[in-house]
């Protein structure tokens, strides 16, 4: 009998090597107890959290916790149904209104996860006669959405407006609709999209533009509306998608748009229709976290100050950090043989970051991916930097301090 | 507009050989993922290079049916002829 599992043999052997090289499985870390937004207990030790995407620290928002408690007590802990059947309570509609108002858009759809927001919007919007034009470094949810759609899918070179333009011009399809999909901040590298240039290409080529602001919502722009706001091109963006599971600290996804047809997308969107809606406590907590975010713009300034501090520290140590300062800072190492021991040593010394190994990284080199929080103290960042310096030295990672 | 499967296949092989990790004895019947040990991302990135050399775009869904270098060449010639 052919084994169903033979396809996993390569993976099993790769995972075995990773575990053998470092002593633990980096993909099975358990946070035994979060003590605050920035510290958790891992392997019995207090560990600084520098890899949780909890940019504003709102997973621990008092206002959100109280809202969740009240909603659970008054509405129960689940909706037991789809948004288009029994799964829409007034809480869901209120949150959609709040999100739409925040983005100054006509309407919003709330999905059960950010993954489903991309999966749902891309597959519902792009039909078999349409073209999807994706940034090559797009998140898996964008690729999966494009597979679920019947559209023709074309990739363009990461963050390159010129390459996007060239590929759009190459298409000889005057009767096809074209949807460009980019991200505000790329989750693995922290790269920020050149939104003004993408918007110019969109205008010149009569395409539609979707921006996934998952990592830039609450982070970029005067009001936290993301990369499009930061570059003043929101009017060119047809659809903004995003998640509640980063800057708002809960879970769920959304799409906002001024196109009135969003109402019909609700009825043509499998990842929206065929899954249970978010439970009342999550919806209520998300709305409260959004209020927190709006009421505390200083969180965004603190976040960027902290990101600049960590980035300058990495550069000072001689580590190869992302070029641009953003709350996602990836330290690139040359080899997997360096990255695995260093990630393990960081954890043993009390810092949790994300280990990203090729092929899940853009240029075949491993990354120690860090995400910064507004709630990190200067002392915590300095402590993390000292631990990075120690771990790099102990693991023989070559350092090239600035100016060297 | 005069590309044939043979000429496109030769161009693909030439591009592949520019990568020192690729075995030296490849031909049009080589399977791109299995014989060249390319992962899915490497295949997509390589196809992007070929697209630019030949001024053609290969939609991702077409890649699902492509296993060998000659399959990729045939797909590109087909796309060019349609254009």
TrEMBL record, chain B:
Transmembrane segments: none annotated. Residues 3-80 form the Carrier domain. Signal peptide: none annotated. It comes from the Bacteria. InterPro entries: ACP-like_sf, PP-bd_ACP. This is Acyl carrier protein.
């Amino acid at each position: 009998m052919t084994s169903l599992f033979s396809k996993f043999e390569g993976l099993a052997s790769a995972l075995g090597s990773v575990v053998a090289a470092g002593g633990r499985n980096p993909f099975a870390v358990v946070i035994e107890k979060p003590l605050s937004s920035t510290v958790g207990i891992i392997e019995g030790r207090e560990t600084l959290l520098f890899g949780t995407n909890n940019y504003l620290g709102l997973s621990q928002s008092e206002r959100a916790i109280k809202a969740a408690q009240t909603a659970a007590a008054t509405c129960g802990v689940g909706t037991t149904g789809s948004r288009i059947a029994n799964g829409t309570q007034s809480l869901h509609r209120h949150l959609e209104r709040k999100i739409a108002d925040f983005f100054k858009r006509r309407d919003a759809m709330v999905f059960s996860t950010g993954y489903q927001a991309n999966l749902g919007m891309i597959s519902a919007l792009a039909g078999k006669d349409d073209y999807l034009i994706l940034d090559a470094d797009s998140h898996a949810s964008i690729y999966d959405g494009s597979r679920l759609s019947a559209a023709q899918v074309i990739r363009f070179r990461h963050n390159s407006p010129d390459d996007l333009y060239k590929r759009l011009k190459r298409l000889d399809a005057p009767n096809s609709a074209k949807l460009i999909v980019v991200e505000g901040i790329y989750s693995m590298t922290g790269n920020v999209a050149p939104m003004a240039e993408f918007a110019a290409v969109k205008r010149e080529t009569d395409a539609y533009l979707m921006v996934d602001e998952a990592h830039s919502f609450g982070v970029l722009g005067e009001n936290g509306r993301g990369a499009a706001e930061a570059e003043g091109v929101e009017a060119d963006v047809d659809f903004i998608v995003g998640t509640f599971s980063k800057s708002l600290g809960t879970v769920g996804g959304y799409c906002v748009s001024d196109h009135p047809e969003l109402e019909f997308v609700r009825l043509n969107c499998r990842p929206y229709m065929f899954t249970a809606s978010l439970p009342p406590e999550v919806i209520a907590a998300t709305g409260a976290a959004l209020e927190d975010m709006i009421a505390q713009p200083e969180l965004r300034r603190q976040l960027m100050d902290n990101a600049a501090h960590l980035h300058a520290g990495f550069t000072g140590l001689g580590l190869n950090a992302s070029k641009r300062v953003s709350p996602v800072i990836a330290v690139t190492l040359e080899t997997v043989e360096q990255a695995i021991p260093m990630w393990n040593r960081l954890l043993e010394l009390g810092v949790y970051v994300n280990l990203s190994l090729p092929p899940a990284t853009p240029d075949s080199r491993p990354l120690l991916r860090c995400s910064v929080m507004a709630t990190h103290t200067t002392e915590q960042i300095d402590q993390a930097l000292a631990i990075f310096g120690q771990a790099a030295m102990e693991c023989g990672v070559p350092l090239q301090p600035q100016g060297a | 507009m005069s590309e044939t499967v043979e000429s496109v296949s030769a161009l693909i092989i030439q591009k592949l050989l520019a990568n020192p990790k690729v075995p030296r004895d490849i031909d049009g019947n080589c399977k791109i993922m299995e014989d060249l040990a390319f992962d899915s991302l490497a295949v997509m990135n390589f196809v992007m290079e070929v697209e630019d050399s030949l001024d053609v775009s290969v939609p991702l869904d077409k890649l699902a049916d492509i296993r060998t270098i000659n399959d990729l060449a045939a797909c590109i010639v087909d796309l060019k002829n349609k254009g």
